[in-house]
Amino acid sequence: MTRRSIYSILVALLCCAMPVFAAEGAPAVPEAAVEQHEAEHDAGHAAAAHGEGADAHAAEGGHHALPLNATPLHSSLPISNSILMVWLAVGIIILFCRAATKKMSLIPTGFQNFAEWAVESLYDFLSGLMGKHLTLRTFWFFGTVFFFILVNNYMGLIPGVGTVGWKDEHGHMIAPWLRGANADINMTAAMAFSFAGLWFYWALTENSVKQFFAHIFAPKGSFAGAMLAVMVPVFLFVGVLEVISIMIRPVALTFRLFGNIYGGEQTLESLMALVPKSIAFLPALPFYFMELLVGFVQALVFTLLCAIFLKLICDHGDHDHDHAEEGHH
Amino acid sequence: MTTLLAAAAENPGVLENISKTFGLNWPFFIAQVVNFALVIFVLKKFAFGPIQVMLEQRRSRIAEGEANLVRIQKQLADSEANTAAAIAKANEDAARLINEAKTSAAALSEQKAQEAIASAQQILAKAEAAAQAERAAIKAELKQEFGRLVAATTAQVTGKVLTSDDQTRLSQEALASVER
């Protein structure tokens, strides 16, 4: 891909973003967002009618809260404010990659130095966890997951993201123009279920199909005679539990990341709503530092859990093999 | 989660409610999967690929450098050993040459000394012979002069002219008395 095609992608991304910021002054409120806002509003009134008190206020459009859903920006195209944020993140990542790898030299400087440090640190970390072979094979995924989540988490903390957007006639925000990508469950689900698919592929190619099922259902350890007869049904039951656990993993990954990031953004907004607008930044300031840490930790946790899940299914107990490989290299 | 799954099994609407609550829907999900795939492509092509190639290149350069260092150290050690051996051999040769030179010089010196002695003896003998010849010549000349003086003196004292025979006899007699 040439430099021209990269710039074309960036321009295309910006063009996609333009409709949101176009028009005179404030962008027009997307119909889909209005519909969503009205639906939430109705739900809030319904909740209020049931006398749910404070919860009803929150449900009533969440005037001091980030909406739970990403806001559609177009009635027919699947474009939301979080997808817009993803495109911006992709643009930033492309620019950074080009800056880092444009003139690579054996003695690194500037961006290249930083990029190499980041990539090599993560690679070594994953190698220690999964072994050299598996890391070499899968680093493109784990590296992408880590850096993509990290960039999106930090972009979600940029002032204005999630807080500046369309307002109704009362001045209450209907929907933000930009929304942290990981505060949208579709993004976290996309990553988690992509991993689930790749996990199956890697698990089946690293093991054979027989080994794959044996890994889940076969008794671990050496049993014989009556003990084997007892242990087989036990491990079959454990295997069923393992299958349920495997099915739940992407769901857990999805909600863990979404919950942490959405919760963080919600916390910041709620704290800002506690005080007058002129000093709104003050109560949220300490939590910004915490969110910087959370953004990194959540990226690491997601990557780490994926890596561990893969290692568990591909583990043949051949640590010596890895060490032998390392020694050989 | 188990409760959710159980609830979902009992009532299929639960999952639908969860999806609606959190805004999970197929078009956005697929769009995000495509976005994620795009990020994977970009990072793999423009970041991880070149960086890993560069890291591998650097690792191989370092390994090559270390191998070269080991080779150079070995060569240095070999070179030092060769140099030490060459120096030892040179020292040995030098000592042998010096000894040979010393022996040769002593022999030559002895030979020259002998030659000088012989030459000196020859010179001495020649000088002695020359001195003896000179002395004999002077002696003969003195004898002749003495005889002439005796003859002249006798001629003056006697007032007579002496013949040649007389002069010879007087000279011989005078010489005989002097030699006695």
Automatic annotation (TrEMBL), chain B:
Entry GO CC: endomembrane system; plasma membrane; proton-transporting ATP synthase complex
InterPro entries: ATP_synth_b/b'su_bac/chlpt, ATP_synthase_B_chain
Coiled-coil intervals, chain numbering: 62-144
Domain of life: Bacteria
TM ranges: 24-43
Keywords annotated in UniProt: ATP synthesis, Cell membrane, CF(0), Coiled coil, Hydrogen ion transport, Ion transport, Membrane, Transmembrane, Transmembrane helix, Transport
GO molecular function, one term: proton-transporting ATP synthase activity, rotational mechanism
Subcellular compartments: Cell membrane; Endomembrane system
Major site of localization recorded for this protein: membrane
Topological relation to the membrane, as annotated: Single-pass membrane protein
Family: Belongs to the ATPase B chain family.
Subunit composition and interactions: F-type ATPases have 2 components, F(1) - the catalytic core - and F(0) - the membrane proton channel. F(1) has five subunits: alpha(3), beta(3), gamma(1), delta(1), epsilon(1). F(0) has three main subunits: a(1), b(2) and c(10-14). The alpha and beta chains form an alternating ring which encloses part of the gamma chain. F(1) is attached to F(0) by a central stalk formed by the gamma and epsilon chains, while a peripheral stalk is formed by the delta and b chains.
Known function: F(1)F(0) ATP synthase produces ATP from ADP in the presence of a proton or sodium gradient. F-type ATPases consist of two structural domains, F(1) containing the extramembraneous catalytic core and F(0) containing the membrane proton channel, linked together by a central stalk and a peripheral stalk. During catalysis, ATP synthesis in the catalytic domain of F(1) is coupled via a rotary mechanism of the central stalk subunits to proton translocation.
Name assigned to this protein: ATP synthase subunit b
Species this protein is from: Luteolibacter luteus
Gene behind the chain: atpF
